[in-house]
């Protein structure tokens, strides 16, 4: 049975002891101040700090503190992480080591001194163009949702320039990831929702009726969030393009099709890629990502700056956007370490390797689905005869009806067996949705183990519901209050400090 480490870990401020140091620099603060004054002039007194309340800790205390905290965490390095729509695959550590090599380079260095880095960005753009069928990319966006915003701003700029004003609406399917309508709204669009048919694909009849002069474009991911390939994609493209409405491809699900199909060939005009899913940086965990945006040739002039170009002497230079560009959306050239990892991954895998990864991801997903769909209380919504792509969504509504327990409780109980929970309650069109994405990096044994654990938990729902209802029992933190768990972290920490102080006072009294 799995048991996660559980330390009653104090905050670094509580571990702090006056006078203890872990690291000293040969720098004299007075000299630093004088050097600063020489280059910047005198800093006004009201801007100078008298003191800085930092914890005072030895190096060993720091190492142990963070190691203990990491033991109370769960990651792809700990175990299976089938979080749907997140592609939590194993990412080669060597790519992290490569990313560390460039840690000392400053983004403000003149282009002449960072030719190697610019060449990496340039080559990565060529590779992404080949993989997606797009004609030009901006590497700048920092994540998927940021890429979506950039894409929507490009759609806006396209119609503004062509028709003298932007079109007001964007179509988003009811199965879409929440960031799609949010990004469209942030870019100033009104969102029109198109329904999913009973077979799990976009309702063409409804779409056709919605499209008019107000519709700027549509945002789609293919395969969609149900894990089904939009088989009518060519018809959707025809309907939209006939109206000069643009098609935006949410590339979060590229792991299903990379090396096999290209959004550009399907007819999409704009694509963002979640490099931090398909290309070797884990999604989740709050770390930096990269959501490069690719476009067809007619939209290249709208891309945000800077873009790396090769001049006539074969040197790499950063180019500012022209007058049609949507303008800067982030400082510098994007999250370089994430881009570098993606480039290293693409080179190491090669075209055939990437294609095989997609095929294995799809095979793993269908293998697991073939077992999971047999479980009592589990149903497969939408066309059950069609294979899914890299992920599948089953419904636990029947289980909820029969036992009172559903996706939430099952997800919590899985943690007791050392498995990360799948995505639950997304997409919104599936009742008690349970969305599993196994990825290509997991072995058959891991998938079989997941099935065994899940079938045990489903059995527990029928036979010992209280055990499931109160789960998890074996993790560092037990059942939490869902609302309080999303409390801003600083408030949670200050509440913890207060509680600890109160406990100490009570004990000493
Ligand atoms: C389908 C889909 N689109 C967009 C996004 C947004 O990507 P990001 O989290 O990088 O902003 C996600 C993230 O999970 C996603 O699954």
Residues in helix, % = 40-55%
H-E order: HHHHHEHEHEHEHEHEHEEEHEHHEEHHHH
Mean pLDDT: 93
* Largest sheet descriptor: 7 strands, mixed
Return the structural class: alpha/beta
The CATH class label of the domain at 114-348 is Alpha Beta
Give the amount of beta strand, in percent.
5-15%
Description of the structure:
The protein is α/β, with parallel strands linked by helices. Among the domains are: 12-71, no CATH class; 114-348, Aspartate Aminotransferase, domain 2 (3-Layer(aba) Sandwich), CATH 3.40.640.10. The protein has 18 helices and 12 strands. It has helices spanning 12-15, 29-40, 59-71, 93-101, 115-132, 144-163, 179-186, 204-210, 233-242, 263-266, 275-278, 336-372, 397-403, 407-415, 444-463, 465-469, 482-485, 489-508; strands spanning 136-138, 169-173, 190-194, 215-220, 246-251, 270-273, 293-295, 307-310, 316-319, 392-395, 423-424, 433-436. It has a 7-stranded mixed beta sheet, with helices on both faces. It has a 3-stranded antiparallel beta sheet with strand order 10-12-11, covered by helices on one side. Helix 6 crosses helix 7 (179-186). The radius of gyration is 26 Å and the shape is globular. The two termini are 41 Å apart. The chain binds pyridoxal-5'-phosphate. Pyridoxal-5'-phosphate binds next to helix 6. The site of pyridoxal-5'-phosphate has 14 residues, from helix 6.
């Amino acid at each position: 049975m799995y048991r996660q480490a559980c330390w009653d870990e104090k905050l670094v401020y509580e571990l702090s002891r006056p006078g203890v140091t872990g690291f000293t620099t040969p720098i004299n603060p007075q000299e630093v101040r004088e050097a600063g004054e020489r280059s910047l002039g005198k800093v006004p007194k009201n801007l100078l700090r008298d003191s800085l309340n930092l914890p005072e800790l030895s190096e060993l205390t720091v190492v142990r503190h963070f190691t203990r905290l990491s033991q109370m965490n769960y990651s792809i390095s700990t175990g299976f992480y089938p979080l749907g729509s997140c592609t939590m695959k194993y990412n080669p550590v060597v790519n992290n080591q490569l990313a560390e090599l460039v840690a000392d380079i400053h983004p403000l260095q003149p282009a002449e001194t960072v030719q190697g880095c610019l060449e990496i960005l340039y080559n990565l753009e060529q590779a992404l163009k080949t993989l997606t069928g797009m004609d030009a990319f901006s590497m700048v966006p920092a994540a998927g949702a940021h890429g979506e915003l950039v894409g929507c701003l490009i759609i806006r700029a396209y119609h503004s320039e062509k028709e003298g004003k932007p079109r007001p609406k964007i179509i988003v399917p009811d199965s879409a990831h929440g960031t799609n309508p949010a990004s469209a709204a942030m870019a100033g669009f009104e969102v029109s929702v198109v329904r999913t048919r009973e077979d799990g694909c976009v309702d063409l009849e409804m779409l056709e009726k919605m499209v008019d002069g107000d519709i700027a474009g549509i945002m789609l991911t293919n395969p969609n969030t149900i894990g089904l390939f939009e088989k009518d994609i060519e018809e959707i493209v025809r309907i939209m393009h006939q109206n000069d409405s643009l098609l935006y491809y949410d590339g979060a699900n590229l792991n299903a099709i990379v090396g096999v199909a290209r959004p550009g060939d399907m007819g999409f005009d704009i694509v963002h890629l979640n490099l931090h899913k398909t290309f070797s940086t884990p999604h989740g965990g709050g770390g930096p990502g990269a959501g490069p945006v690719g476009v067809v040739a007619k939209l290249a002039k709208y891309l945000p700056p800077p873009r790396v170009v090769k001049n006539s002497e074969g040197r790499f230079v950063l180019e500012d956007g022209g007058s049609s560009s949507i303008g800067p959306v982030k400082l510098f050239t994007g999250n370089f370490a994430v881009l570098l990892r993606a480039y290293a991954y693409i080179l190491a895998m090669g075209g055939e390797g990437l294609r095989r990864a997609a095929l294995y991801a799809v095979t793993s997903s269908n293998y697991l689905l073939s077992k999971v769909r047999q479980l009592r209380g589990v149903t497969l919504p939408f066309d059950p005869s069609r294979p899914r792509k890299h992920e599948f969504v089953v419904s636990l509504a029947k289980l909820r009806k029969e036992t009172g327990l559903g996706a939430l409780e099952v997800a919590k109980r899985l943690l007791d067996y050392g498995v990360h929970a799948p995505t639950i309650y997304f997409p919104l069109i599936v009742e008690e949705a349970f969305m599993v994405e196994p990825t290509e990096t997991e072995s058959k044994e891991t998938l079989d183990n997941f099935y065994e654990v899940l079938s045990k938990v489903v059995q527990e729902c029928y036979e010992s519901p209280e055990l499931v209802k109160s789960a998890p029992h074996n993790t560092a933190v037990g059942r939490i209050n869902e609302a309080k768990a999303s409390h801003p972290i600083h408030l949670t920490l200050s509440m913890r400090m207060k509680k600890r102080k109160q406990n100490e006072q009570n004990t000493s009294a």
